[in-house]
């Protein structure tokens, strides 16, 4: 949770994301995943997006990560429309770090190789990529597991590799989709501690999708979605319970 | 540097590593695909190598005899058709022609050999000059009922000096074993022209006239001479020695069949690679979506797929060349063609085969690459 001084500092920070009237339909308009969502997220905030399955939280994450386009509405990143990005891949490569629920490590690559994968778009030398990957694996406490393939790592270790990978290109925003959803409670706590400390240490904006209220309580702000609409936006401590 | 020392076992990673891992992912499928391409390329190497070898070998035989022009009647048929020996008188006097040699050549079954080149040469002409006696002697005169065997022919027929060899209904004495300057001569039975005309019932008929021209005659002058000869003798045709076989209908049929068979085999390879790469893209849909979500450009994904298929082509090509070379050598030992064909396994042919293989790979990768580029990165957040 943010300290009062951090909250005040965030309140003065510029907006990273600004969404207005954001809608997303699937199946030729048969399914309305988002039905006009409005919010702003400031630089350095830790926002939890919560809600039951099918409430639109993952769709929202896709929009923020430029993985998909909204059907209507506006979505801006640092004042510029995400819908008119000339190169969405470059945006994902340099501005965004993704952490997935199922880790999504590439099975034929070792831990250190997985961390290097996003760096191919960075035009770094091989040696620089390797050095950076080693630093990141060390930062997540996996310095002894660099040459292990994902199949030889525990769930918590895999998620640590995935976190290291998400930091590869020093993004300013971390988007995490249920990062503890596939972990036991002990590993989940460690991963959450790690993500939270990275957010503070590196002053990154962290947007975390979860359906777990205890995870959301770690954030400085919670946005609750239901049936594709924002039904709560505020202090996670005041987050209403949902079925 | 400190970190480097802490982890001495770690490797730097290149885009090439990404490509090879993609291929190693399903080793059996990759292996079978490689085999598919390799068979196609082996067919190219073997069949084209042999058909080119046919021309190269005959050309070498001509050149070794100093023949610059060949007058023949092979254009419209698969085998040389005999034409009147008197034709020679119409070309021998042409300016620039220094010597001529009438030849009757036939491919026939001789004893245990299914196909053997039997070459009847005008007695005393220059076509005898390049034959080097390995054992025995030359025939005493053109009417001696004797033959010379090329070294390979002797080996194939299992004959030595003093034995007899049966050609059609005649039994002729083997008086010498000779080595020519070309593979076809070593695989031939050589005898005098009148004797072969008599044995085959082709009295006063020949199938080729080898022509020597004055020293220093250039290619353009040789072509002009060929045109003039062809005009003078409508029943035959004159070609430069290096081209006469390649211009024949028979060679064109052989070449077309070789390419046809090879292209069919290559087509199977193309379908194999396309199928493999499509399967690979389909299996890796989410993986590709993850790469897109991690910031990889679609062009990099397309390059990855194209490089993977090109690698399949390259490796398949290299294996195919190996298989083709081994296959050709096995084919050469087949009784039906032993001593007849010398493959042209030149660097150019091998380079062409490997280039075809790489092109097959790249071509086969286009559709799968296009499919991969259509995948949406949002797939990464599903499942």
Name some characteristics of this structure.
heterodimer, A: 243 residues, alpha/beta, 6-stranded mixed beta sheet, 4-stranded antiparallel beta sheet, 8 helices, B: 383 residues, alpha+beta, 2 domains, 10-stranded mixed beta sheet, two-stranded antiparallel ribbon, 12 strands
Written description of the protein model:
By secondary structure, chain A is an alpha/beta fold. Chain A has helices at 4-12, 57-64, 88-94, 111-116, 126-139, 155-166, 185-201, 213-216, and strands spanning 15-26, 31-42, 46-50, 72-77, 80-81, 96-99, 173-177, 205-210, 221-226, 229-234. The radius of gyration of chain A is 18 Å and the shape is globular. The relative contact order of chain B is 0.19. In chain B, strands 1, 3, 4, 5, 6, 7, 8, 9, 11 and 12 form a ten-stranded mixed β-sheet that branches. The model of chain B is unreliable at 1-8 (pLDDT under 50). Chain A binds chain B through residues 58, 61-62, 65, 67-68, 87, 89-90, 92-94, 96, 98, 100, 102, 104, 106, 108-109, 112-113, 116-118, 120-121, 126-127, 129-131, 134-135, 138, 143, 146-147, 165, 169, 177, and chain B through 3-4, 6-7, 9-15, 17-18, 21-22, 24-25, 286-287, 290-298, 300, 376-378, 380-381, 383.
In short:
The complex is a heterodimer of chains A (243) and B (383). Chain A is an alpha/beta fold and 243 residues long.
The amount of helix of chain B comes to 40-55%
How much of the sequence lies in strands of chain B comes to 15-25%
Q: How would a crystallographer describe the biggest sheet of chain A?
A: 6 strands, mixed
The radius of gyration of chain A is 18 Å
Return the structural class of chain A. alpha/beta
Q: What percent of residues of chain A are in strands?
A: 25-35%
N to C succession of SSEs of chain A: HEEEHEEHEHHHEHEHEE
What's the overall average pLDDT of chain B, rounded?
Answer: 86
What kind of assembly state do the chains in view correspond to?
heterodimer
The percent range for helix content of chain A is 25-40%
Derived structural class of chain B: alpha+beta
Tell me about the largest β-sheet of chain B: 10 strands, mixed
Largest interface by Cβ-Cβ < 8 Å: A-B, 41 and 35 residues
Q: List the helices and strands of chain B in order.
A: HHHEEHEEEEHEEHEHEEHEHHHH
């Amino acid at each position: 949770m943010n300290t009062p001084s951090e909250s005040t500092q965030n309140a003065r920070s510029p907006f990273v994301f600004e969404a207005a009237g954001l809608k997303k339909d699937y199946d030729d308009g048969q399914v309305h995943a988002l039905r006009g969502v409005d919010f702003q997220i400031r630089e350095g905030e830790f926002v939890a997006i919560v809600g039951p399955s099918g409430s639109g939280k993952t769709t929202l994450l896709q929009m923020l990560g430029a993985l998909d386009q909204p059907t209507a509405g506006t979505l801006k990143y640092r004042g510029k429309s995400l819908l008119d990005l000339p190169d969405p891949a470059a945006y994902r490569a340099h501005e965004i770090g993704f952490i997935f629920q199922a880790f999504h490590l590439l099975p034929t690559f070792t831990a250190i190789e997985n961390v290097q994968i996003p760096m191919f778009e960075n035009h770094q030398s091989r040696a620089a990529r390797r050095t950076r990957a080693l630093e990141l694996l060390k930062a997540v406490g996996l310095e002894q597991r660099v040459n292990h393939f994902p199949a030889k790592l525990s769930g918590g270790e895999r998620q640590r590799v995935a976190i290291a990978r998400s930091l590869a290109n020093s993004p300013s925003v971390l988007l995490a989709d249920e990062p503890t959803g596939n972990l036991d409670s002990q590993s989940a706590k460690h991963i959450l501690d790690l993500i939270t400390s990275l957010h503070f240490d590196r002053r990154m904006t962290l947007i975390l999708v979860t359906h777990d209220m205890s995870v959301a309580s770690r954030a400085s702000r919670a946005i609750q979605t239901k049936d594709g609409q924002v039904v709560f936006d505020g202090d996670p401590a005041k987050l209403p319970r949902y079925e | 540097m400190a970190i480097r020392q802490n982890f001495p076992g770690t490797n730097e990673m290149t885009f090439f590593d990404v490509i090879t891992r993609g291929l190693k992912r399903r080793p059996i499928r990759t292996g079978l695909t490689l085999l598919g391409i390799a068979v196609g390329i082996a067919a190219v190497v073997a069949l084209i190598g042999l058909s080119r070898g046919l021309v190269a070998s005959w050309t070498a035989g001509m050149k070794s005899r100093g023949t610059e022009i060949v007058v023949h009647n092979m254009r419209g048929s698969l085998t040389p058709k005999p034409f009147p020996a008197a034709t020679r008188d119409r070309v021998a006097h042409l300016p620039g022609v220094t010597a001529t040699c009438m030849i009757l050549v036939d491919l026939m079954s001789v004893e245990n050999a299914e196909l053997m080149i039997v070459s009847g040469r005008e007695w005393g002409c220059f076509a005898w000059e390049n034959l080097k006696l390995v054992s025995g002697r030359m025939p005493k005169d053109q009417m001696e009922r004797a033959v010379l065997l090329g070294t390979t022919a002797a080996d194939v027929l299992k004959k030595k000096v003093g034995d007899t060899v049966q050609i059609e209904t005649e039994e002729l004495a083997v008086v010498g074993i000779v080595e020519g300057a070309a593979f076809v001569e070593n695989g031939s039975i050589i005898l005098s022209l009148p004797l072969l005309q008599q044995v085959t019932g082709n009295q006063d008929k020949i199938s080729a006239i080898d022509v020597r021209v004055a020293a220093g005659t250039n290619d353009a002058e040789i072509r002009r001479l060929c045109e003039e000869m062809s005009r003078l003798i409508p029943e035959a045709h004159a070609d430069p020695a290096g081209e006469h076989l390649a211009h024949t209908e028979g060679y064109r049929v052989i070449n077309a069949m070789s390419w046809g068979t090879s292209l069919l085999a290559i087509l199977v390879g193309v379908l194999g690679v396309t199928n493999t790469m499509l399967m690979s893209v389909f299996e890796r849909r989410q993986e590709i979506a993850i790469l897109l979500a991690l910031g990889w450009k679609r062009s990099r994904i397309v390059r990855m797929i194209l490089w993977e298929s090109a690698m399949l082509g390259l490796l398949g090509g290299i294996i195919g060349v190996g298989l083709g070379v081994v296959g050709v050598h096995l084919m050469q030992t087949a009784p039906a063609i032993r001593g007849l064909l010398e493959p042209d396994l030149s660097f150019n042919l091998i380079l062409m085969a490997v280039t075809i293989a790489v092109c097959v790979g790249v071509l086969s990768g286009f559709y799968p690459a296009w499919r991969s580029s259509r995948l949406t990165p949002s797939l990464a957040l599903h499942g």
